Amino acid sequence: MSLLAKTMSSKYNELAIEAERAFTEFRLAVVQLHVTKVKADNLSRARGLIKEAAAQGAKVVVLPECFNSPYGTGFFPEYAEKIPGESSQVLSEAAKESQVYLVGGSIPEEDDGGKLYNTCPVFGPDGSLVLKHRKIHLFDIDVPGKIRFQESETLSPGSNLSVFDTPYCRVGVGICYDMRFAELAQLYSKKGCQLLVYPGAFNMTTGPAHWELLQRGRAVDNQVYVATASPARDETASYVAWGHSTVVSPWGEVICKAGTEETVVYADIDLQYLADVRQQIPITAQRRSDLYTVNAVQEG
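Predicted structure:
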């Protein structure tokens, strides 16, 4: 083989490897946004950070729960809007201009029947609405002396599973409290998801106790990547978010974790690594479906 032919062959192999890697590896960005009472400011800063993430090579970007308004039952009716609406329009434009898949955290959504939902809209690189996930499990808790919160005072629960496809992998969507329900993650895994995203706003009681623990549990149980996006911590807010947006690997390792400030953290998702983990510890094939199974009553 001539030197020219060898050079061309080597170049072809390099290009082939790069092309394959482009579909087995991609960069995920998690935006930890400082949320204020001024919706326009929240939308503007979110848009800027999405653009920043895309400039760093991100192909999928995740925003926090309730990124366009303060988190609280008193705020939900005041900030609620329809989809399409002001916030979803900004997200659509941001996804298109940055050419990313955008998991739009969540916003208080009002539907035509007057009900309110905690809703995560997802947009494609062309700006189209891929899906909207309405929080399935409402955050109704009472820890005496520490925190009481009842989303059901103003919100209604969603009733659908939410999965979308990218050229890189299949993604399952939950919102905050949804992460506590292992069955939902199992269903997403059965549907072929390799990445689970949970925009969430754990607080100063549940955050230090369970935030990372739950993420690592969902990742290890289902051998998937798990990403969470929290608002930045604001000690002056009526509801103080824990922060510490995180990405966890299928091995249960924390790949990246934010502090408490507004920031963007990045994780390079490696689907070949995920496949290797599943091959080394083949729990999917080893499940005793003759004894137990988890099935969706209602598909979505």
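Summary: The chain is about 30% helix and 25% strand.
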